[in-house]
Sequence to fold (327 residues):
Amino acid sequence: MQFVTFLNARCHEMDPGGTLQVVYGIDGRHDLPEETLDLEGYKGSHPVRIGNAAVDQLQLDINGELLDSLYLFNKHGAPISYDLWVYLRRIANWVCDNWERKDHAIWEERGGARNFVYSKVMCWVAVDRALRLASKRSFPADWRRWMKTRDKIYETVMKRGWNQKRQAFVQAYDGSALDASCLRMPLVFFTGPNDPRMLQTIDAINKPPGEGGLVSDGLVFRYDLGKTRDGLRGAEGTFNLCSFWLVEALTRASRADPARLQDARLLFEQMLGYANHLGLYAEQLGHRGEALGNFPQALTHLALISAAYNLDQYLDGVQNTAGEEGL
Fold:
Protein backbone atom coordinates (compact mmCIF):
# COMPACT_ATOMS: atom_id res chain seq x y z
CA MET A 1 0.00 0.00 0.00
CA GLN A 2 2.86 2.40 0.78
CA PHE A 3 4.31 1.78 -2.68
CA VAL A 4 0.99 2.67 -4.31
CA THR A 5 0.80 5.78 -2.14
CA PHE A 6 4.26 6.73 -3.43
CA LEU A 7 3.18 6.16 -7.05
CA ASN A 8 0.00 8.14 -6.52
CA ALA A 9 1.98 11.08 -5.17
CA ARG A 10 4.38 11.01 -8.13
CA CYS A 11 1.47 10.93 -10.58
CA HIS A 12 0.10 14.09 -8.98
CA GLU A 13 3.47 15.73 -9.68
CA MET A 14 3.77 14.65 -13.31
CA ASP A 15 4.79 16.92 -16.14
CA PRO A 16 1.87 18.80 -17.74
CA GLY A 17 2.40 16.72 -20.87
CA GLY A 18 1.74 13.49 -18.98
CA THR A 19 5.23 12.19 -18.27
CA LEU A 20 7.04 10.98 -15.17
CA GLN A 21 10.73 10.96 -14.29
CA VAL A 22 12.65 7.74 -14.71
CA VAL A 23 13.72 7.76 -11.06
CA TYR A 24 12.95 9.68 -7.87
CA GLY A 25 14.52 9.84 -4.45
CA ILE A 26 13.06 7.51 -1.86
CA ASP A 27 11.52 10.58 -0.26
CA GLY A 28 10.01 11.62 -3.59
CA ARG A 29 12.55 14.31 -4.48
CA HIS A 30 13.06 15.08 -8.16
CA ASP A 31 16.59 16.53 -8.13
CA LEU A 32 19.14 13.70 -8.35
CA PRO A 33 22.35 15.14 -9.86
CA GLU A 34 25.02 12.51 -10.50
CA GLU A 35 28.44 13.01 -8.90
CA THR A 36 31.55 10.87 -8.99
CA LEU A 37 33.24 10.66 -5.58
CA ASP A 38 37.00 10.58 -5.10
CA LEU A 39 37.09 7.22 -3.34
CA GLU A 40 36.97 3.51 -4.03
CA GLY A 41 34.21 1.06 -3.24
CA TYR A 42 34.36 -2.57 -2.13
CA LYS A 43 37.68 -4.18 -3.13
CA GLY A 44 38.68 -1.12 -5.13
CA SER A 45 35.51 -0.86 -7.20
CA HIS A 46 35.17 2.40 -9.08
CA PRO A 47 33.82 4.82 -10.07
CA VAL A 48 31.73 5.49 -6.97
CA ARG A 49 28.74 7.64 -7.86
CA ILE A 50 25.86 9.23 -6.01
CA GLY A 51 22.74 10.47 -7.73
CA ASN A 52 21.82 9.13 -11.17
CA ALA A 53 22.28 10.77 -14.57
CA ALA A 54 19.53 8.47 -15.89
CA VAL A 55 17.04 10.90 -14.34
CA ASP A 56 17.36 12.90 -17.57
CA GLN A 57 16.98 9.93 -19.90
CA LEU A 58 13.89 8.87 -21.82
CA GLN A 59 12.99 5.34 -20.75
CA LEU A 60 9.68 4.38 -22.29
CA ASP A 61 9.40 1.12 -20.36
CA ILE A 62 8.63 2.85 -17.03
CA ASN A 63 5.09 3.58 -18.20
CA GLY A 64 4.35 -0.12 -18.58
CA GLU A 65 5.81 -0.90 -15.18
CA LEU A 66 3.64 1.78 -13.58
CA LEU A 67 0.38 0.79 -15.29
CA ASP A 68 0.99 -2.91 -14.66
CA SER A 69 1.68 -2.30 -10.95
CA LEU A 70 -1.49 -0.28 -10.49
CA TYR A 71 -3.53 -2.73 -12.55
CA LEU A 72 -2.42 -5.56 -10.24
CA PHE A 73 -3.10 -3.44 -7.16
CA ASN A 74 -6.61 -2.70 -8.41
CA LYS A 75 -7.14 -6.42 -9.01
CA HIS A 76 -5.64 -7.88 -5.83
CA GLY A 77 -5.48 -4.95 -3.42
CA ALA A 78 -8.06 -2.19 -3.49
CA PRO A 79 -9.86 -0.26 -6.25
CA ILE A 80 -7.90 2.76 -7.46
CA SER A 81 -9.56 6.17 -7.28
CA TYR A 82 -11.02 8.14 -10.17
CA ASP A 83 -8.56 10.95 -9.41
CA LEU A 84 -5.64 8.55 -9.95
CA TRP A 85 -7.29 7.21 -13.10
CA VAL A 86 -7.30 10.72 -14.59
CA TYR A 87 -3.49 10.73 -14.36
CA LEU A 88 -3.16 7.18 -15.68
CA ARG A 89 -5.30 8.13 -18.67
CA ARG A 90 -2.89 10.98 -19.39
CA ILE A 91 0.02 8.54 -19.26
CA ALA A 92 -1.74 6.17 -21.68
CA ASN A 93 -2.35 9.03 -24.08
CA TRP A 94 1.28 10.14 -23.77
CA VAL A 95 2.41 6.61 -24.66
CA CYS A 96 0.17 6.66 -27.73
CA ASP A 97 1.90 9.89 -28.81
CA ASN A 98 5.48 8.85 -28.00
CA TRP A 99 5.94 5.07 -28.20
CA GLU A 100 7.73 5.29 -31.57
CA ARG A 101 10.53 7.46 -30.14
CA LYS A 102 14.00 6.08 -29.49
CA ASP A 103 14.98 5.77 -25.83
CA HIS A 104 17.64 4.45 -23.43
CA ALA A 105 15.58 1.52 -22.12
CA ILE A 106 15.73 -0.54 -18.94
CA TRP A 107 19.53 -0.78 -18.86
CA GLU A 108 19.92 3.03 -18.92
CA GLU A 109 22.38 2.78 -21.79
CA ARG A 110 24.65 5.77 -22.22
CA GLY A 111 25.66 4.93 -25.78
CA GLY A 112 22.74 6.68 -27.46
CA ALA A 113 18.99 6.21 -27.84
CA ARG A 114 17.65 3.37 -29.99
CA ASN A 115 14.44 1.52 -30.72
CA PHE A 116 14.77 -1.05 -27.94
CA VAL A 117 12.35 -3.96 -28.21
CA TYR A 118 11.79 -4.17 -24.45
CA SER A 119 10.72 -0.52 -24.34
CA LYS A 120 8.18 -1.10 -27.11
CA VAL A 121 6.84 -4.19 -25.35
CA MET A 122 6.36 -2.20 -22.15
CA CYS A 123 4.59 0.55 -24.09
CA TRP A 124 2.20 -2.19 -25.24
CA VAL A 125 1.81 -3.21 -21.59
CA ALA A 126 1.00 0.39 -20.60
CA VAL A 127 -1.80 0.71 -23.14
CA ASP A 128 -3.05 -2.84 -22.58
CA ARG A 129 -3.32 -2.37 -18.81
CA ALA A 130 -5.01 1.00 -19.26
CA LEU A 131 -7.62 -0.72 -21.43
CA ARG A 132 -8.08 -3.52 -18.93
CA LEU A 133 -8.44 -1.09 -16.01
CA ALA A 134 -10.98 0.98 -17.91
CA SER A 135 -12.96 -2.14 -18.75
CA LYS A 136 -12.92 -3.61 -15.24
CA ARG A 137 -13.85 -0.33 -13.59
CA SER A 138 -15.93 1.23 -16.41
CA PHE A 139 -13.65 4.26 -16.37
CA PRO A 140 -13.91 6.75 -19.25
CA ALA A 141 -11.25 5.97 -21.83
CA ASP A 142 -10.08 6.73 -25.36
CA TRP A 143 -11.00 3.21 -26.45
CA ARG A 144 -10.57 3.43 -30.21
CA ARG A 145 -7.23 5.21 -30.04
CA TRP A 146 -5.80 2.97 -27.35
CA MET A 147 -6.83 -0.25 -29.07
CA LYS A 148 -5.42 0.93 -32.40
CA THR A 149 -2.11 1.89 -30.76
CA ARG A 150 -1.86 -1.35 -28.79
CA ASP A 151 -2.32 -3.39 -31.97
CA LYS A 152 0.17 -1.29 -33.93
CA ILE A 153 2.84 -1.71 -31.25
CA TYR A 154 2.28 -5.46 -31.25
CA GLU A 155 2.51 -5.84 -35.00
CA THR A 156 5.62 -3.63 -35.17
CA VAL A 157 7.46 -5.62 -32.49
CA MET A 158 6.58 -8.88 -34.23
CA LYS A 159 7.91 -7.53 -37.52
CA ARG A 160 10.96 -5.49 -36.51
CA GLY A 161 11.82 -7.02 -33.12
CA TRP A 162 12.01 -10.58 -34.49
CA ASN A 163 15.18 -11.67 -36.28
CA GLN A 164 14.32 -14.41 -38.74
CA LYS A 165 17.94 -15.50 -39.16
CA ARG A 166 18.57 -15.81 -35.44
CA GLN A 167 15.07 -17.14 -34.80
CA ALA A 168 14.76 -14.91 -31.74
CA PHE A 169 13.47 -11.60 -30.48
CA VAL A 170 16.42 -9.22 -30.34
CA GLN A 171 17.58 -6.17 -28.45
CA ALA A 172 16.57 -3.45 -30.90
CA TYR A 173 14.60 -3.06 -34.11
CA ASP A 174 16.16 -4.71 -37.15
CA GLY A 175 19.14 -5.84 -35.06
CA SER A 176 20.75 -9.20 -34.32
CA ALA A 177 22.03 -8.84 -30.74
CA LEU A 178 20.21 -10.75 -28.02
CA ASP A 179 19.00 -9.10 -24.82
CA ALA A 180 17.83 -10.88 -21.67
CA SER A 181 15.02 -8.34 -21.22
CA CYS A 182 13.15 -10.23 -23.96
CA LEU A 183 12.65 -13.01 -21.39
CA ARG A 184 9.99 -10.78 -19.84
CA MET A 185 7.75 -10.94 -22.89
CA PRO A 186 5.73 -13.95 -21.66
CA LEU A 187 5.90 -12.71 -18.05
CA VAL A 188 3.92 -9.57 -19.00
CA PHE A 189 1.67 -11.59 -21.37
CA PHE A 190 2.92 -9.95 -24.55
CA THR A 191 3.44 -13.47 -25.91
CA GLY A 192 2.10 -16.77 -24.72
CA PRO A 193 4.67 -18.75 -22.73
CA ASN A 194 4.55 -21.52 -25.34
CA ASP A 195 4.49 -19.31 -28.43
CA PRO A 196 7.01 -20.83 -30.88
CA ARG A 197 8.82 -17.49 -31.22
CA MET A 198 9.17 -17.22 -27.46
CA LEU A 199 10.43 -20.77 -27.07
CA GLN A 200 13.02 -20.14 -29.77
CA THR A 201 14.08 -16.92 -28.04
CA ILE A 202 14.50 -18.73 -24.71
CA ASP A 203 16.59 -21.40 -26.43
CA ALA A 204 18.73 -18.79 -28.20
CA ILE A 205 19.41 -16.91 -24.97
CA ASN A 206 19.96 -20.12 -23.01
CA LYS A 207 23.18 -20.94 -24.83
CA PRO A 208 26.75 -20.12 -23.76
CA PRO A 209 28.25 -16.89 -25.10
CA GLY A 210 30.61 -18.92 -27.29
CA GLU A 211 27.57 -20.22 -29.16
CA GLY A 212 25.90 -16.82 -29.44
CA GLY A 213 23.83 -17.01 -26.25
CA LEU A 214 23.88 -15.14 -22.95
CA VAL A 215 24.10 -17.93 -20.35
CA SER A 216 27.26 -19.06 -18.60
CA ASP A 217 26.89 -21.99 -16.20
CA GLY A 218 23.21 -21.17 -15.72
CA LEU A 219 23.85 -17.46 -15.08
CA VAL A 220 22.54 -14.85 -17.50
CA PHE A 221 24.32 -11.82 -18.96
CA ARG A 222 21.94 -8.97 -19.78
CA TYR A 223 23.44 -8.62 -23.29
CA ASP A 224 26.58 -9.24 -25.32
CA LEU A 225 28.97 -6.38 -24.52
CA GLY A 226 30.70 -6.88 -27.84
CA LYS A 227 27.49 -6.09 -29.73
CA THR A 228 26.05 -3.37 -27.48
CA ARG A 229 27.38 0.18 -27.34
CA ASP A 230 26.30 0.90 -23.78
CA GLY A 231 28.75 3.76 -23.19
CA LEU A 232 30.42 2.04 -20.20
CA ARG A 233 33.99 0.87 -19.74
CA GLY A 234 35.19 -2.56 -18.71
CA ALA A 235 33.55 -5.94 -18.34
CA GLU A 236 30.60 -6.90 -16.17
CA GLY A 237 29.17 -9.96 -14.45
CA THR A 238 25.97 -11.87 -15.00
CA PHE A 239 22.77 -10.16 -13.88
CA ASN A 240 20.86 -11.91 -11.09
CA LEU A 241 17.66 -10.24 -12.24
CA CYS A 242 18.01 -11.85 -15.67
CA SER A 243 18.75 -15.27 -14.19
CA PHE A 244 15.47 -15.20 -12.26
CA TRP A 245 13.67 -14.06 -15.41
CA LEU A 246 15.02 -17.16 -17.13
CA VAL A 247 13.75 -19.34 -14.27
CA GLU A 248 10.25 -17.93 -14.65
CA ALA A 249 10.25 -18.04 -18.46
CA LEU A 250 11.30 -21.71 -18.36
CA THR A 251 8.69 -22.41 -15.71
CA ARG A 252 5.86 -20.91 -17.74
CA ALA A 253 7.05 -22.66 -20.90
CA SER A 254 6.98 -26.06 -19.19
CA ARG A 255 3.28 -26.64 -19.77
CA ALA A 256 4.10 -27.82 -23.29
CA ASP A 257 7.54 -29.22 -22.41
CA PRO A 258 7.81 -30.63 -18.85
CA ALA A 259 11.60 -30.94 -19.19
CA ARG A 260 11.82 -27.14 -18.98
CA LEU A 261 10.35 -27.26 -15.47
CA GLN A 262 13.24 -29.40 -14.29
CA ASP A 263 15.67 -26.95 -15.86
CA ALA A 264 13.91 -24.09 -14.07
CA ARG A 265 14.04 -25.85 -10.70
CA LEU A 266 17.73 -26.65 -10.99
CA LEU A 267 18.59 -23.10 -12.04
CA PHE A 268 16.54 -21.67 -9.18
CA GLU A 269 18.27 -23.89 -6.64
CA GLN A 270 21.63 -22.90 -8.08
CA MET A 271 20.73 -19.20 -7.78
CA LEU A 272 19.76 -19.64 -4.13
CA GLY A 273 23.34 -20.68 -3.46
CA TYR A 274 24.62 -17.29 -4.62
CA ALA A 275 22.75 -15.29 -1.97
CA ASN A 276 24.75 -13.98 0.97
CA HIS A 277 24.27 -15.11 4.57
CA LEU A 278 21.19 -12.88 4.85
CA GLY A 279 19.63 -14.23 1.66
CA LEU A 280 20.33 -10.99 -0.23
CA TYR A 281 21.64 -10.42 -3.76
CA ALA A 282 23.70 -7.77 -5.44
CA GLU A 283 22.96 -6.61 -8.95
CA GLN A 284 25.56 -8.91 -10.54
CA LEU A 285 27.70 -11.96 -9.95
CA GLY A 286 31.39 -11.92 -10.86
CA HIS A 287 33.28 -14.73 -12.57
CA ARG A 288 34.10 -16.28 -9.18
CA GLY A 289 30.59 -15.90 -7.79
CA GLU A 290 31.36 -12.67 -5.94
CA ALA A 291 28.73 -9.95 -5.52
CA LEU A 292 29.13 -6.98 -7.87
CA GLY A 293 27.25 -3.75 -8.44
CA ASN A 294 24.38 -2.30 -6.45
CA PHE A 295 23.67 -4.13 -3.21
CA PRO A 296 21.07 -5.13 -2.28
CA GLN A 297 19.11 -4.61 -5.48
CA ALA A 298 15.32 -4.47 -5.13
CA LEU A 299 14.60 -5.49 -8.74
CA THR A 300 16.51 -8.73 -8.27
CA HIS A 301 14.51 -9.63 -5.18
CA LEU A 302 11.21 -8.87 -6.90
CA ALA A 303 12.22 -11.22 -9.72
CA LEU A 304 13.24 -13.84 -7.13
CA ILE A 305 9.81 -13.67 -5.47
CA SER A 306 7.96 -13.92 -8.77
CA ALA A 307 10.10 -16.83 -9.96
CA ALA A 308 9.70 -18.67 -6.64
CA TYR A 309 5.92 -18.20 -6.58
CA ASN A 310 5.40 -19.41 -10.13
CA LEU A 311 7.85 -22.30 -9.83
CA ASP A 312 6.08 -23.47 -6.67
CA GLN A 313 2.71 -23.36 -8.44
CA TYR A 314 3.95 -25.40 -11.38
CA LEU A 315 5.79 -27.94 -9.25
CA ASP A 316 2.59 -28.48 -7.27
CA GLY A 317 0.58 -28.68 -10.49
CA VAL A 318 -1.89 -26.02 -9.34
CA GLN A 319 -1.11 -23.20 -11.80
CA ASN A 320 -4.21 -21.23 -12.74
CA THR A 321 -4.35 -21.50 -16.52
CA ALA A 322 -7.39 -19.25 -16.87
CA GLY A 323 -5.82 -16.63 -14.62
CA GLU A 324 -2.60 -16.60 -16.60
CA GLU A 325 -4.25 -16.25 -19.99
CA GLY A 326 -6.95 -13.83 -18.88
CA LEU A 327 -4.85 -11.66 -16.56
